[in-house]
């Protein structure tokens, strides 16, 4: 199937989101360290960097038409896998100001549209 302009734009927008988030993991790692679930072994910074590397790799996979299908599917899996970090963030921020809580709680339902978006991008080349 020949990708349409809107499908290509959607894939590149997803790649941009993943790439920007991946870079943020290295540029400002502390907020990401804080949401690493305590049950994971090792240091939070290691997980922050690993997830940043993963996001950069996924961004590249989604951006390239040849790898877009698998990249989109892997990105959907990644978005599902990091959901526990969003739950931890919401829990940790439950006693903060309404604005901070709104951001933390708002991330929870946003994960599902990200998963759906990535799956659509993954199917757009098949």
Automatic annotation (TrEMBL):
Range of residues in the leader sequence: 1-26
Q: Which UniProt keywords apply?
A: Signal
Q: Which domain of life is it from?
A: Bacteria
Task: State the protein's name.
Answer: Putative membrane protein
Q: What is the lineage of its organism?
A: Bacteria, Bacillati, Actinomycetota, Actinomycetes, Pseudonocardiales
